[in-house]
Structure formats: structure tokens, C-alpha cells
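Task: encode each sequence below as C-alpha cells.

Item 1
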Amino acid sequence: MSGPAHIQHLIALKTFGKCTPISLALNEANRLQVSVHNVKVRENREILKDLKRATYFLAKQELAFRRNDESEGSSNRGNYVELLNVLAEKDERLETHLQVSTVFTGTSNRI
């Protein structure tokens, strides 16, 4: 009983319950990727809370959100954008998001 099947069974018995180095590395990489993703999700949720607070404030005060000229050079870019800029002065995370984000900043003039 020392055929190929017997050898495979012996190998399976010896390695049962043990991770091979490659699977260990893949598991660690996957765990790290999930961890990084979860941190980014938490950051995005906090930024979204700031955007919601600004929206709620302007709606509660019945203030206009936008102006005709919201370009970078405008002295008054509208209540929403200006309020976010004020909030960003005290919140480094929001400031970084408004400056760096290319996918969603929360200040688009299109829905």
C-alpha cells in the first residue's frame, strides 16, 4: 500500500490544519486590505456627516445653497461651499477631502 494515493494521503495527513506559507501570506494580505478598506469607509462616513450637517443647517435657516458663480476665483461661492470651507478650517480631514478628492467632494453643482 505504498502507491501514489497512499503518498498523497500521507501528505494530506501531515499538512492537515496547517497553512502553507503562500496561503498565510494571502490571508494576511486579504486581512490588511479589508482593514484599510474599513478605515476608508469610516473616514468617508465622517465626511458625509459633515456634508449632511452643512445641508441641514442651510435648510433649517432657509438659506440659499448656491450662487451663480462658484468658481475658485469668486469672492462668494455660495453658502454651501463657503460653509464647508469654514468647517474645513477646523477639521483637517474635511479640508484634505475637499482639496484632494477626485471622485466625490460633495460640492458638485449637478445632481
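Item 2
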Amino acid sequence: MGKYSGRKISDVPWEELHVGMKVVSARGTPGEITRLRSFPEDSYDSIDFKWENGNESFGMFHI
């Protein structure tokens, strides 16, 4: 992917997130949002990612 221009995920408000958005993890790994889910009855939101290194993360909390 070369130089990565995504924003750090913790700096992006939930309302601005969208599937396909390029982001950077707290540890500096670049990736892309693949799924957003909101669970208002449980008071949390979760995000699935596909990272540049080939790994995937599922159900990560947005803080």
C-alpha cells in the first residue's frame, strides 16, 4: 500500500466512521473498516477491520 494516510481510529468520532474508511490502529497498523455495528441496548459499538499485514480483527470496541 505504500505510504498510508489513514486517521488514528481513536481520533475519529463514531458518527464519522464508515465501511471502507482507511484508519490506523492504536499500535500504528494501517487498515480498513470492513463492518460497523451498534448495540444501543448494550451501550456499545463495534468495528471489524482488515489490516494491511493481512490480519483481521472482529468486534473491536470503539473508545
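Check on item 2: Strands lie at 7-8, 22-24, 30-39, 44-51, 56-61. The chain has a mean pLDDT of 82.
End of task.
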